[in-house]
């Protein structure tokens, strides 16, 4: 049974609208996963969630139920939530899944970004029914999907996910935000890298943080992100079929991402022959 990945937001850190980012997109992280008859599962609630919400509302035939799975709660992964139109209609339900951060519950983090001091409508006042569920590493169901969560190397508690839709065993993974190189002080334990490769083993399409150029990483080690080359090495090691470069650096315009993609494909031909490499672009749909 085919299902579809749709990229609604591909950018990291901060939205980057304007004529120089029209092809790869300026909205921050948001990917929709849907199959025939399956409930929509949304990965991350960056500003790409806003156009997704508008699309859902324009073609709804009745009350909407949406599941949103957060990798973590940095702004670029939650900032679309206050502008998610389905929240404004009674009868809709929105279930949000993600990790607490230390002692702070997930629901409180989401409420804070809609605090009256910084936003006019509190999360507790929206018309839709909102349910917030905290998750931990391991396996759990969301709607029709089987989800496995794996802790990533990034400030705070950040999870990568492997999503298996109905009738599929293997699933497709998302690893953002994630630092594959040296640096950073993350509580992920020994054997993390081997565990990650095993987690991804022989999956089809890996969406991975590929934010920094080889030049940038020299001064940004420990910031929690990877280069496209590091993502290729991981995808090759895990024998994935396809890698989608994701979480684009705001300083990179469309032409810069084109160049990065060309260089990354040349690198992949040497170190991971057979691996297909694409760069996430807003509006891109992949049928799996
Ligand atoms: Zn991010
Ligand atoms: Zn982050």
Largest sheet: 7 strands, mixed
Which structural class should the secondary elements be placed in?
alpha/beta
Which residues sit in consecutive blocks of at least 5 with pLDDT less than 50? none
- DSSP, total strands: 14
* Helical percentage: 10-25%
Q: pLDDT average, as an integer? A: 95
Number of helices: 6
> What spatial form do the alpha-carbon principal axes imply?
globular
The small molecules bound here are: zinc ion
- CA(first)-CA(last) distance: 9 Å
H/E element order:
EEEHEEHEEEEEHEHHEHEE
Major sheet: order of its strands? 6-5-4-3-2-1-14
Query: In percent, how much strand structure appears in the residues?
Result: 15-25%
Rg from alpha-carbon coordinates: 18 Å
Quick summary:
With 288 residues, the protein is α/β, with parallel strands linked by helices.
Q: Can you give a write-up of this model?
A:
With 288 residues, the protein is an alpha/beta fold. It is built from six helices and 14 strands. Helix 3 links the parallel strand 10 and strand 11. The N and C termini lie close together (9 Å).
Q: What topology does this entry show?
A:
Layout: E1 4-9, E2 30-34, E3 41-43, H1 49-58, E4 65-69, E5 93-98, H2 106-112, E6 129-134, E7 138-142, E8 145-151, E9 159-164, E10 172-175, H3 192-200, E11 205-209, H4 214-217, H5 228-237, E12 242-246, H6 254-271, E13 276-279, E14 285-287
Parallel strand pairs: 3-4, 4-5, 5-6, 10-11, 11-12, 12-13
Antiparallel strand pairs: 1-2, 1-14, 2-3, 7-8, 8-9, 9-10
Helix pairs in contact: 5-6
The structure holds zinc ion (2 copies).
């Amino acid at each position: 049974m085919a299902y579809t990945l749709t990229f609604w937001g591909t950018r990291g850190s901060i939205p980057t609208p304007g004529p120089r980012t029209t092809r790869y997109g300026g909205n921050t992280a948001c990917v929709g996963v849907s199959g025939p008859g399956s409930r929509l599962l949304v990965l991350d609630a960056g500003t790409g969630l806003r156009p997704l919400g508008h699309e859902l509302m324009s073609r709804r035939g009745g009350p909407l139920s949406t599941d949103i799975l957060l990798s973590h709660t940095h702004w670029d992964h939650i900032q679309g939530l206050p502008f998610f139109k389905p929240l404004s209609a009674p009868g809709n339900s929105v279930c949000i899944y993600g990790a607490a951060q230390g002692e702070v519950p997930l629901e409180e983090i989401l409420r804070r970004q809609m605090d009256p001091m910084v936003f006019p409508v509190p999360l507790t006042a929206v018309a839709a029914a909102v349910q917030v569920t905290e998750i931990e590493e391991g396996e759990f169901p969301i709607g029709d999907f089987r989800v496995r969560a794996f802790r990533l190397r990034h400030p705070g508690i950040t999870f990568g996910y492997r999503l298996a839709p109905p009738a599929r065993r293997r699933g497709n993974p998302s690893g953002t935000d994630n630092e594959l190189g040296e640096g950073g002080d993350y509580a992920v334990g020994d054997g993390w890298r081997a565990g990650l490769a095993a987690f991804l083993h022989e999956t089809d399409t890996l969406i991975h943080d590929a934010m920094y150029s080889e030049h940038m990483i020299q001064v940004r080690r420990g910031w929690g992100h990877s280069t496209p080359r590091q993502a290729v090495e991981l995808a090759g090691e895990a024998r994935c079929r396809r890698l989608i470069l994701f979480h684009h650096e705001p300083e990179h315009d469309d032409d810069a991402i084109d160049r990065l993609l060309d260089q990354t494909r040349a690198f992949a031909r040497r170190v991971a022959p057979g691996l297909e490499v694409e760069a996430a672009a807003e509006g891109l749909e992949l049928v799996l």
